[in-house]
Amino acid sequence: MTFHLGRRALLAAAAAFTLTGSAMADGHKVADSIHFLIPGGAGGGWDGTARGTGEALTKAGLVGTASYENMSGGGGGKAIGYLIENADSNHGTLMVNSTPIVIRSLTGVFPHNFRDLTLVSGTIGDYAALVVGKDSPLNSMDDLMAAYDADPSSTAIGGGSVPGGMDHLVAAMVMEAAGKDALNVKYIPYDAGGKAMAALLSGEIKALSTGFSEAVALAQAGEVKILGVTSDARVDAYGDAPTMMEQGIDTTFVNWRGFFAAPGLPEDKLAMYQDAIAKMYDTPQWEEVRARNGWVNIHNSGDDFRSFLEDQEKVIGDLMKKLGFL
Q1: Which residue, 48, 106, 124, 241, has fewest beta-carbon neighbours within 10 Å?
Q2: 75 Cβ contact list (under 8 Å, min separation 6)
Q3: Considering the domain boundaries, does residue 107 fall inside one?
């Protein structure tokens, strides 16, 4: 099975940035402050994206101060519900999100979808990867497939998302593309990336499905080996990581990440958030954060962002039906 989400799929959703203050004529400081709402725990991709964006915006002088709030629960639904129910008091908040807001709405994990929020802008793309612990006997995707063929029930793959969530979907796509029945893959969900990592190191799971930027950080720390990444070509941030494609597994995937704001956000504040993010791309502070994490720049806001999300909703919905998740 071939599954490709092209560069448009990198376009990120808008984060619920709380930017207050007026843009300055010199083009530097755009907002006094932003409060980032993170729908998952520490150590995950949402956490890294929000904190990296806040770091770049503040160090570049585009935003005065940034604050962060982790609100796990309901596969991200708790934070979305909170932002909608407390919209009037959260005009200074940007919520980070990504492909799961599409997946989990399709599967009914939570009742809301991206249309219930104010779309700010997509910011980056992050490939996915399968990794194993540093002491694992597995050194390639061929090794993982051989282990799976020998004993499927003891070859569990874990991830930091709910069953039918993105980490599960990526693992299923990869296994399906490798000629396996995705419905037979044993997937074990964990509430956050950090917990999933602990399960990998303890041997509770054979491999971990995670974002490439998280995999790079773990590999550089000497904790994991990257078996495969879902990019078209090797990524400069960690050139030692082989692609799925070069190992004969015909699948690519990139997870967009971006920011949403509360529904009913005043137009001037929305424009301010979008202006701050647009200016961020031209700063060395952002390039440092981007390169460090192996992200791909994808900037999309306004109607373009909405069109992208609607397209992705159809592509992923069709895929999930094919794999039996819907």
Answers
A1: 106
A2: 100, 104, 109, 110, 161, 162, 165
A3: yes
